[in-house]
UniProtKB/TrEMBL annotation:
Listed InterPro entries: VWF_A (IPR002035), VWFA-rel_acidobac-type (IPR017802), vWFA_dom_sf (IPR036465)
One Pfam assignment: VWA
Annotated protein name in UniProt: VWA domain-containing protein
Residue intervals of the VWFA domain: 127-305
Signal peptide region: 1-29
Annotated region (Disordered), positions in chain: 32-70
Keywords: Signal
Domain of life: Bacteria
SMART domains for the chain: VWA (SM00327)
Matching SUPFAM superfamilies: vWA-like
Keyword Signal: yes
Claim: Signal is one of the keywords in the record: yes
Length: 350
């Protein structure tokens, strides 16, 4: 969620064409019918009329204007949601050629008031955090993690537009490389990680989102933000809870891709933890059967990052109260599955 301040001079507020979400569409998908979207008119208030643009020093209007013809500055605040999502078929293959009309969306159980843009296979800049479990429990698998993560960065990061950081964690987060587009520095950061200690997974995710990803796009063009988490999902040292970590990811609008280091044939609580984090943020959890397969999971993530859609819209009946707003996005062709974050926190009014 971002807030944009716009000024208009003697012009009506003209917005792009809306998303074709109909009430009938939603009634076929679920029993609760969403209200029809209201006309996309920004709520505006004229500022106190100051000296007109081009007014002469003596206070008279410029040539060609009649007395009483004044220019007003109208300030409008447009709340926009940037939503990145992925579509797959039942075999997990990415579907990349769908159109805006192929989707329906509810934000806080209402159709959006306005859609500003819809992009296939978005090439928005990437901001990726590599977060690697360095606790004692993964010591024997650590070298595979480092090698696979380094290969992923070299294939995924485009130095002209993308940036990444590297963080390890055991009891505390350990930032080895801050935001950079320098692949050599990122590789050095990964190789500098050392294993040992307890596990504070939730603290690590919370810290990465709060300290690195929450402000990653502030003052810039929209970006895609993601964490690639390599861990067995266990946690025995965190002060934060699982729900705290998930909420901070949602505040930072960050997708989490989790790769499990648990290669045992049976699932445990850590696997469920990784699944919950990934699903709540619109990501995906991978469970390789062998550590050697981890590089394949990184390749799947790389492929997904190249197969995403990007949607920017204005929510209906928006209130800047800091509350959590749910997102429900689906494809009208029910053969396909949409993976997107489950919601976001509205900013609080100043």
């Amino acid at each position: 969620m971002k807030t944009v301040l716009a000024s208009k001079f003697l012009l009506p507020c003209v917005l792009a064409a809306g998303f074709p979400f109909s009430v009938a569409t939603f009634s076929r998908a679920q029993s609760q019918t969403a209200p029809a979207p209201t006309p996309p008119l920004a709520q505006t208030q004229p500022a106190i009329p100051a000296k007109s643009a081009g007014q002469q020093p003596n206070g008279q209007p410029p040539n060609g204007q009649q007395p009483g013809d004044q220019q007003y500055t109208i300030t409008a605040t447009a709340n926009e949601v940037d939503l990145v999502f992925t579509v797959t078929d039942k075999h997990g293959r990415f579907i990349k050629d769908l159109q805006q009309r192929d989707f329906a969306l509810l934000d806080d159980q209402k159709a959006p008031a306005q859609v500003y843009s819809f992009t296939q296979q978005t090439n928005l800049p990437l901001r990726v955090g590599i977060v690697i479990d360095t606790s004692t429990s993964i010591r024997q698998r650590f070298s595979f993690e480092q090698q696979a993560a380094a290969e992923f960065l070299f294939k995924s990061i485009q130095p002209r537009s993308d940036k990444a950081f590297v963080m390890g964690f055991d009891v505390t987060p350990d930032y080895k490389q801050d935001w950079t587009n320098n692949l050599d520095l990122l590789n050095t950061g990964i190789n500098a990680l050392r294993s040992g200690g307890g596990t504070a997974l939730f603290d690590a995710i919370y810290s990465a989102c709060r300290d690195k990803l929450l402000d990653a796009s502030r003052g810039q063009e929209p970006v895609r933000k993601a964490i690639v988490l390599v861990s067995d999902g266990d946690d025995n040292q965190s002060h934060a809870y699982l729900t705290d970590a998930i909420k901070e990811c949602q505040r930072a609008e960050t997708i989490v891709y989790a790769i499990s280091t648990n290669v045992s044939p049976s699932r445990d609580r850590g696997d469920d933890t990784l699944t919950k984090i990934a699903e709540a943020t619109g990501g995906r959890a991978f469970f390789p059967k062998r550590m050697e397969d981890m590089s394949l999971n990184f390749a799947d993530i790389e492929d997904e990052l190249r197969s995403q859609y990007a949607l920017v819209y204005k929510p209906a009946d928006f209130i800047a109260n800091g509350a959590f707003r749910t997102i429900y996005l689906f494809c009208l062709d029910r053969r396909y599955t949409v993976r997107a974050r489950q919601g976001y926190f509205a900013p609080k009014s100043q």
